[in-house]
Amino acid sequence: MGFKYEGFSLTADAAKVKGAAAQLLGVTKKAKDKLSNVPNGAAETALYTRWFGAIDGTRLKTVQRIVSDIDDAAHSTRRTITFVDARQTTSIGRNEPGTRAYVHCGGTGWTGHVGSGIRVLITQRFFAPDTNPDKVTERTVCVMLHELSHKLGGTIDHVYGRDEALELARNHPAKAHKCAENYGFFALDLLKLP
Ligand SMILES: [Zn+2]
Q1: Distance from the CA of 148 to the center of ligand 1, in angstroms?
Q2: How far is the CA of 40 from the centre of ligand 1 (A)?
Q3: Do residues 149 and 31 touch, judged by C-beta distance below 8 A?
Q4: How far is the CA of 156 from the centre of ligand 1 (A)?
Q5: How far, in Å, is the centroid of ligand 1 from the Cα of 157?
Q6: CA distance to 54, 67, 127, 152, 169, per residue, from 193 (Å)
Q7: Which CA distances in Å does 77 have to 21, 26, 121, 179?
Q8: Mean pLDDT (whole number) for 29-42
Q9: I need a surface site. Which of 70, 108, 147, 185 has the fewest CB within 10 A?
Q10: Which residues surround ligand 1, an ion (CB under 5 A)?
């Protein structure tokens, strides 16, 4: 993937974003591999069911396709993800509390999306002090998968939050498999899988 960085004036901030980008490559590959093992692998299937609900052939295929598209994008040398320090840009107006990253959407999926590639705006909350480095990693992976599922999978924000995403998977799998938050938390749990 061509990762680019815009506007990060502090070395520590740039390093944090670059660390998240590097982590992302491993996670998307792992997500794609593990999902290809559903419904045969017990651990993979349990993880899928937890975040996307009861298995249904069509929904499973959709989740596999979205994650595969994300992985392809992450590893393509022809695609660029540009991380932009949105704190430096007042005109963006996306720095309200709770907003960690924002993707400029120019359509859903790869088809028809050409030109400048993906721009991920990194806002203040991404840099919030965190005593546990593992938590920083987890948070960035969760945020990135959430945002990339919007961009490449056309997912929407049915709910926000871990408990809410779990509830959605349990009771509304048809919504869960198109909800960005479910992709984020799925990726986070994936980190714990061997
Ligand atoms: Zn979202």
Answers
A1: 9
A2: 30
A3: no
A4: 6
A5: 5
A6: 20, 17, 26, 24, 19
A7: 14, 16, 21, 28
A8: 96
A9: 108
A10: 157, 180
CA distance 54 to 72: 26
Whole-angstrom distance, CA of residue 7 vs CA of residue 21:
16
Measured torsion, CA atoms of residues 125, 19, 34, 121, in degrees rounded to the nearest 10: 40
Average pLDDT, the chain: 82
Q: Stretch 168-173: mean pLDDT, rounded?
A: 98
Is 99 within 8 Å of 126 (Cβ atoms)?
A: no
Task: Tell me: pLDDT of 150 over 90.
Answer: no
Q: Give the separation between CA 71 and CA 27, rounded to whole angstroms.
A: 9
Q: In terms of C-beta density within 10 A (0-12 exposed, 13-18 middle, 19 or more buried), how is residue 126 classed?
A: buried
| pLDDT above 80 (res 136) | no
